[in-house]
Specification:
InterPro entries: Anthranilate_Pribosyl_Tfrase (IPR005940), Glycosyl_Trfase_fam3 (IPR000312), Glycosyl_Trfase_fam3_N_dom (IPR017459), Glycosyl_Trfase_fam3_N_dom_sf (IPR036320), Nuc_phospho_transferase (IPR035902)
GO molecular function: anthranilate phosphoribosyltransferase activity; magnesium ion binding
Cofactor: Mg(2+)
Keywords: Amino-acid biosynthesis, Aromatic amino acid biosynthesis, Glycosyltransferase, Magnesium, Metal-binding, Transferase, Tryptophan biosynthesis
Radius of gyration: 19 Å
Organism: Rubripirellula tenax
Structural class: alpha/beta
Distance between the termini: 44 Å
Length: 339
């Protein structure tokens, strides 16, 4: 452990154990040390667990995100509006990869998308897992990802590939086996610098903290969402709350199934046991199969289209998303992404 880290980590651990939040700069320096491999596994684990027990603060999220952004491999592009549908995960809902399907349908509807994601951690299937199952080459290097984004208007930013410095903490995270500060950071560190984010969160507490962090980190416009049934997606079972974050401030939106003109459905109807089943569900939706899984993708895409200003309300968004699927444009976009 470096000399600076030798003193900084024990002090931060004591502070967190005492229930005191770390500052933005303090957290940023600590995460920097972790990502440079300058801190031992034991103190990294101790700090992450102390922050978890205290409850990670907005200042800690912002500081950690700024450090991670400094270390990530950036994806240059030509788009003024760029959407990401990456969420925090951790809801335990067991659904198929709705946000990944939403990303593809949104791209098919004319929105540039840089989908950030990783392999499964707390879920049965991660975005990287299902895209790999669908035939997408997820291990592309940064130049190939950038080229694809500019050429076809969608790319997949594989976190494991584009955040190489995370190799210094992956062992600790795996050994701990619990959610830590890093679980909230993925959506805050899109390598292509997404201007618009449809960002699902697993709890009202995480929703409020992530929204406050995004307000400091800056996007053009984001919807940070959580549903009353516990889903980290736009849900058709009860009410979905979205905290809209723009430079001029935050406000709260709510949607019910009636707003989308879609039938209510529970998360049970959206379940997938593994990436293969999730991929099969997405393929059938894109082939025109009706039902709750299609409706879930229509609702999520409608929110994404409203977010980027493509439609005036979510009802219009459902119509445009359905048209993109039924005209074969979602299937065609997936085929381009495979190429």
């Amino acid at each position: 452990m470096s000399e600076n880290a030798h003193s900084a980590f024990p002090a931060a651990i004591r502070q967190a154990v005492a229930g005191e939040d770390l500052s933005v700069d303090q957290t940023s320096d600590l995460i920097d040390a972790m990502l440079r491999g300058e801190a031992g596994d034991d103190v990294v684990a101790e700090l992450l667990l102390a922050l978890r027990a205290k409850g990670e603060s907005v200042s800690e999220l912002v500081g950690a995100a700024r450090a991670m952004r400094r270390h990530m491999t950036r994806i240059p592009h030509k788009h003024d509006v760029l959407l990401d549908t990456c969420g925090t995960g951790g809801s335990g809902s067991g659904t198929f990869n709705i946000s990944t399907a939403v990303a593809i349908v949104a791209a098919a509807s004319g929105v540039a998308v840089a989908k950030h994601g990783n392999r499964k951690a707390t879920s049965r299937t991660g975005s990287a897992d299902v895209l790999e199952e669908l035939g997408v080459r997820i291990e592309s290097d940064a130049d190939a990802v950038a080229e694809r984004l500019d050429a076809i208007g969608i790319c997949f930013c594989f976190a494991a590939k584009l955040h190489p410095a995370m190799r210094h903490v992956v062992g600790v995270r795996r050994k701990l086996g619990v959610k830590t500060l890093f679980n909230l950071l993925g959506p805050l560190c899109n390598p292509a610098g997404a201007t618009h984010q449809l960002l699902g969160t697993s709890s009202p507490d995480a929703q409020a903290k992530v929204a406050a962090a995004i307000a400091q980190l800056g996007t053009t416009r984001s919807f940070v969402i959580h549903a009353s049934d516990g889903q980290d997606e736009v849900s058709l079972d009860g009410v979905t709350t979205a905290i809209e974050v723009q430079t001029e401030g935050k406000k709260t939106l709510t949607w019910s199934p009636q707003d989308f003109g879609l039938s209510p459905c529970t998360a049970d109807a959206l379940a997938a046991i593994d990436p293969a089943e999730s991929a099969s569900i997405i393929s059938r939706i894109f082939a025109g199969e009706p039902g709750p899984t299609r409706d879930a993708v229509l609702a999520g895409t409608a929110a994404a289209l409203l977010l980027v200003g493509k439609v005036a309300n979510v009802g219009e968004g459902v119509t445009l998303a359905a048209r993109s699927i039924d005209a074969g444009m979602a299937t065609a976009k997936l085929e381009q992404l495979r190429g």
